[in-house]
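User: Please predict structures.

Assistant: First:
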Amino acid sequence: AMDQARSAISQIFNSEPHSYTRFNLPDNMEGDTSQVEMIQSSDMNEEVGENGDEDHLSHKSNHKPHVAQNFECTTKNLCFMAATIVFTFVIGYLTGYLVHKNKDLNCSCAPSEDDVTHQTGAVPFMDWDDVKKLLGDKLNTSNLEIALSQLSSSNHRAGSPGDEDLGNKVITKFKEYGMKTWTDEYFVKVQDPPASGYNRIVFKNGPEEHPTGFLSYSASGTARGAVLYARYGQEEDLKQLKDMNIDMNGRVMLVRAGRISFAEKVASAAKVNASAVLIYPDPIDYPIGNDTSLFGHVHMGSGDPYTPGFPSFNYTQFPPVQSSGLPNILAQTITTGMGTKILRQLGGRAQPDGWEGINRLGDESDVITVEVNNVHTEKRINNVFGVIKGFVDADRYVVIGAQRDAWGPGFAASTVGTSVLVELARSISDMVENDGFKPRRSIVFASWSAGEYGSVGATEWLEVRSVVHVNTRQDGFKVAASPLLHSLIQNTLKELTTNSTNIPAALLEPLRMDSAAYPFLAFSGIPSVAFRFNSGSSDYPYFGTTLDTQQNLNSITASQVPQLAVRAASCRSHSAELQPQLLPKTLTGQWLVMASGSYNRVSSILTADIQNSDLENMETCRMINDRVMTVERNFLSPYVSPIDSPFRHILLGSGPHTLKALSSDLDALKTASPEANAELFRNKLAQVTWTIQACANSLAGDIWSLDNEF
């Protein structure tokens, strides 16, 4: 029923060629006032404003390496594909309509030419083909190459002078383009490696080793235990070890980087009472040499974990709390050389069938000592913004954002994204100034800091205001999104005409926890999109290392990075819509079935309302879109605190309140597991049921349309 319901919602975006989307922007996490549309360009990796009106904006001051053989497959081309796709999203939102098969039709939700002229004095909206032609003229290889050169930096870690200098370069560019600018300042607590001393490991009676990489937010101290090789540290990997009756209590888990985030690996190990986790880049996944260090974080959340739910403003007093997503066990990255050296010496049982290699799992004699001495550091970070005011709906926004910081050079992680951000700002400003382009909604350009510590800058802003989020990243092209946006994405991509035949079929994928878009969906219930790129079958291998340089990116892409935007205009999507399983089939309780039925019925009613409504009426469009855009926010469980469970989304979040956890609880009851708790299960079932029912009620709209049969 949930699948059908979500499919019905998805049809809202493509059932009629005149439909478009508008998103709520609440005053607080669950308020309901103004509305927003947002695009995010980040990490290439990884939000803004109270109102789009300039007078109301608060401000302080003005993966496996793969050398492509043709342009369609190169990261250089894909980088420009990201720029063009993001640009297409932006223009679609700004002009008040999305991409349609009939290119001659503007969105019927947009006001008529006479209305626009009467209300704003603005020139009527441009034809979509004219907008695309302007894109091709403005966004070009030579300009992006200049931006890449000007914005490259060897050291711009969050809060550093290099980060601040780069932020100043971005805001200077925005001012040059005639944009109104401002900066938001935060004081956040992070964890850095010891300023004096070191972290260390000692395996058996071997020499003491001092890894230079680190994982921010690890517990500190010393742990001593027997090594247990646990593949990628995924829950399914640990389940296989449990099925082999292997005692994991107190063990030091040795796991490979990849597949899931560092934070998920550590959280899974903590659940089985491991004492520490060592993460290494296996050469099969990361051919980066024996001595390359990995950097990252292990906060099972986002933002400043020491002010969960609150923005980290200076001199502001908060309760002495910390995020429940902080681990209570040690976590440390080690190099490929260190990891393979330990693996070769392990004894014990053979690894389960299906695991790569011929490794042993380790036995009680394979003892290792792990010491982590990371220190807490307060950093002053700045988010930098520029805005182009809309000509009709100035209080509605498109926000384009990019992560600015990196562990090292961060050419792929931040330089490319920041360069695309600046080039989009230049292109759109020029279109407004010289070509008569009149954006209907305001456009805010955002440069985020502290993304490498877990989307800290973006989340701190999110804890003040909320928006729709789209995140881009590089290498082969992938899209992960809230199911509400799947049809929207496909329609946008299909508008790009091409002679290319090398776009991968499996375009859509589930949203990953380490994506910058994930907290927007799972923390604040904001429909989110993440554009991610990968090399062949794996991620770009230099993320999270100091080897993320222009030279290494060029070596993987045959020096084609700046060509992506130009080539992307001729790329076409060949993907099929992802249909995720949103409701575990094991949950067959009558309560849940009836709530799902309510959701399905009101979804069908809403689809009918759209088909039978006068979509020439702007207010009707606003009311319909308001109903649609409450869906994700109402899937946030109201029964848990964001401090205890930051990712409250019951379908796509994490924690005991989710449908996934409820399904696991049901399995425990069926197998008479000692961990089973029937009373707790009934309470969780009731809470999930009412969350779904509340979502259905909100989707119904008017109070007299609520389904009270339940």
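Second:
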Amino acid sequence: MAFKTSLMFCTILLYSLLTRTFAHQQPLKTYIIQLHPDAMSESLFASKLHWHLSVLEKTVDDPSLRLLYSYHSAMEGFAARLSEPELELMRKLRHVVAIRPDRAHKLHTTYSYKFLGLSPNDENGAWVRSGFGRGSIIGVLDTGVWPESPSFDDRDMPPVPKKWRGVCQSGEDFNGANCNRKLIGARFFSKGHSVASLSPSEDDVSEYLSPRDSHGHGTHTASTAAGSAVPMASVLGNGAGTARGMAPGAHIAIYKVCWFSGCYSSDILAAMDEAIRDGVDILSLSLGGFPIPLYDDSIAIGSFRAMEHKISVICAAGNNGPIANSVANVAPWVATIGASTLDRKFPAVVHMGNGKIVYGESVYPGTSHEKRLEIVYLTGGDRGSNYCFNGSLPRNKVQGKMVVCDRGVNGRAEKGQVVKEAGGAAMILANTEINMEEDSIDAHVLPATLIGYSESIQLKSYINSTRRPMGRIIFGGTVIGRARGPSVAQFSSRGPSFMDPVIPKPDVIAPGVNIIAAWPQNLGPSALPEDSRRVNFTIMSGTSMSCPHVGGLAALIRSAHPKWSPAAIKSALMTTADVTDHYGKPIMDGDKPAGILAMGAGHVNPVRAIEPGLIYDITPNEYIMHLCSIRYTKSEIFTITHRNVSCQDMMKNNKGFSLNYPSISVIFKSGMTSKMVIRRVTNVGEPKSTYAVKVVAPEGVKVRVKPRRLSFSRSNQSLTYRVWFILKKSSGSKQGRFSQGQLTWMNLKDNKVKIQSPILVTKSTSKN
């Protein structure tokens, strides 16, 4: 027996030695290794770092050289470089819960605060009632910050909150003196990026190995969330006014996680880990990718831990619209933000030689390109001339002319640089069918305008109708209030989510098209390396811009109600959102009214959100029950929550459970004809108040609510109601897979106080 045991031990030892020898010859990749949180208590280590190194030492000879990060707050575990054989050894270790490969995520104003109804002079407004967000700390995970920007001036800012435990990390061209009472902390996380990325190309902007921003995106988003007031701000004279963030009194903490090759999940998780310990109140993440299961999603896992620490996590929905099922960052404990338009336009029309005009937009400075130019649109061949690829435009064909470039493939501003380098005098950027009439504009390096798809058809028809088409661009400056707004941005990602079809996403929409905000001095307003112009502000579009808008609004609500949970803050934003535009008409999604899968509960309205009347609150345990209800396994739930639960026991003790979400989603599987959901509302308004229900039923569905009135006798009192959904017998396939409605609780004393929940009914052919 002893001989067999010795032989087995020698075999294992030999296997391990051979594996390690072979591993040294294998390429290394970064993995995030999640450990059981209770396992360290069984060991005698001075710190979690020592424990993590000891685990890593079981598979590699040089653990300190392979370890990238040791996580303590956002997750229990570490990030390390492993070969394939080492990975297999790691999977067999006792306390390893899950292993995930490092993933690269992508990065998804002078007027928008006015558009949202925020005013420093309104004594009953959200700014004054929240103290402009004073006392709240917004953590921004992005490309860093340009601290010298006037948007981060700390004049009139209160002292740094006593709870703050963060640092101002020194690095390349950045030190402690760059932080102040506005910008109270800054860190950078580059280990995941540095081991995964090739060296930047000559065309890339040089990186700062510090919290300093070399790309502009992070400076733009941070100032959108909580930038100080900056008078006379504009982009090359356009959109002039006073720039302010959504929470101008809030403090900002910067976590630089994004670099020239993207944002790696190991770096993001490390930033969330530090942010939780630093003491932030809000986390704004304008980054993400395509949707993945929650148990594989480092942002979902880290944000669950943040939520448990009372931190609101605000995430961009993504820019993959209008494709269905494209919405990202869909965990029910985060706020998922889509993008909307403003009612501000920057007209730059093209006067064609046939006397007709096509509408376009631009922030290029000037009133007109007076000289009439020949218009050229180069097609045919395989050089991509119609897209204005680098090197695709023959100088003899475009010199001194106005060049038409189709949108797509390469960057919009890049196309203008290509035209300029080829000798072109101006550019017309033409939307294709995929972009339709979406009008995300740029600060181009030459006279240029962006035209919609229908306009591009008109323009190309004119070009084909004559031997020498002519035209000139007339720049019209800034026009406010004449266009309908808000509407859903074409690029904003759409639901439903495959990862969690029970929760409609996005949650809300917020301004994300042509947003003017702060910009670093190392870049021109187009962000192109060749652009030598320097500005303090530029214009950008994306759900990346929408996300910090809501991050700032969440800070306002938290300052007004410091004891509220992240779920309560999200509820206030969702149940008070607008479903009509500033003309009182339905918010549009292209040429049709927007639905819940495009705009969520609607467009944020901070004036109403600051005092919503009622809230839908959710506890961490209820999120776990929700994961059980959508059939996540015990190990998958443990990976996300670090909690060992029995779904069978939880669901047995909570029969009829449905997550207390502000929106209501019902899925009718094949053969089902009725379903009941329960909701719980908490009174955060007048102590004695009564609400009556009003329902707009989805087509083909009968809706019953009981009780139909909710009478509260005190503040913070919670009452429940039930909603029955019954499919009508005539309900058939003609009505489509989705139907929508709305449930509203109206305050009988004050009709202005109404709490709205969108209803989504899904008819599924599946029985599972």
